[in-house]
Amino acid sequence: MTHATHLDPQTLAALAAGATAGPDAAEHLTGCSACLAELSRLTGALARLEALAADHAPRPIRPLRLTACTPAAPRLRPALIGLAASAATVAVAAGLLLTLGRGPASTLESGLETAFMEEVRALAEDPLPAFYQELVPDTGASLDAAPSPQTSTPDATSGALSKGRMA
Amino acid sequence: MREQVFDQDLTALARSAAAGNQAAFAALAESCHARIFRYLARKTGSRHLAEDLTQDVFVKALRHIGRLTEPERFVGWLYGIALNRLRDHARHLKLRRLLFLPSGNGSGPPEDVPDPADDLAEVGRKEFWQRVAEFSAGLSAREREVFGLRFLDGLQLSEVAEALGVSQSAVKTHLSRAVAKFRDDTAFMAFLEGERR
């Protein structure tokens, strides 16, 4: 590279920015005072900029307060993250199970409800279920102060009940 | 040489702090407090906000210092935390704006709370930063960030790369472009040369 072809501005900028000069550029700089002066002017201006920026920078007034905080255990953090991830997985799985389990649970609930309604219906049809009739077979009769032949049996203690059963 | 010794001190302190020595961390924080504040003040234009964010940066650094596996990269790592804190703050401001909420103390114009200094120095300081702002306006966002960290905050290339999470070659590329624009800004160059005298 001759002195007639000086280093281009991009190369000078790259060198001033901290790039390492290639063999050609390094050789040229050793023999070209113009390029060397230009590079020196550029690096000098940047150094001046850096120094002025430091001189004119604002300074903090408020002191740092670091006493109240404690450093996290460095190896504990991944463990905590893993634990949290596991907990989240379990929670999601539980939620899924509950959601999926709504079918059987609903079936169970509806089954119980059906049984309950059957019981209610049976009570409506027969307010004195069989087991009760067996325990107190004569209750209806004893309740009647003046039993009559028509009301001597539990079935006949109440016309409404009889009607209900007959219905 | 003095800078190298200082960097070695920082590395030794960072190694000790990473091993759990809180006194070493306190010494690190003392050494880097002003420069992190300076970076955040430059980026936010607000002294009060920069003080708050600086506090946050060191609290976060203290929490995570145990993860620092390469203590020689402490400075870049610390600037990376500061940059992330700035990004969080920017997101927070954006969200507040979306919700039509007041932006708090970070959205106002730069606060003019001068350092204790005489009037002449204050004028020189303002003019300097005005010139820097005018030059920076002609840079791309990445060029501005790289150039600012390198020449306004005084970071080494490796520290700029660490702070931004990019390769050193990427830093050099952006920095070369920024320096080329700096060279072409004859007014700024003349101002700096005038300041030299």
Question: How many separate domains make up the residues of chain B?
Answer: 2
Helical percentage of chain A: 55-70%
- Name of the CATH superfamily of the largest domain in chain B: RNA polymerase sigma factor, region 2, helix turn helix motif
Shape label of chain B: globular
The counted number of beta strands of chain B is 0
Characterize the largest beta sheet of chain B: strand count, sense, and whether it forms a barrel: none
- The tally of helices of chain A reads 8
Main beta-sheet annotation of chain A: none
- Give the percentage of residues in beta strands of chain A: under 5%
Helix content of chain B: over 70%
The largest contact between protein chains, plus residue counts on each side, is: A-B, 36 and 53 residues
Q: How many distinct helices of chain B?
A: 9
Please report the distance between the alpha carbons of the first and last residues of chain A.
Answer: 120 Å
Derived from helix and strand composition plus strand pairing, the structural class of chain A reads: mainly alpha
Mean pLDDT of chain B: 86
Order of helices and strands of chain A: HHHHHHHH
Task: Give the low-pLDDT segments of chain B.
Answer: 104-110
Tell me the distance between the termini of chain B: 26 Å
How many beta-strand segments of chain A? 0
Keywords:
heterodimer, A: mainly alpha, 8 helices, elongated, B: 197 residues, mainly alpha, Rna Polymerase Sigma Factor, Chain: A, Arc Repressor Mutant, subunit A, 2 domains, 9 helices
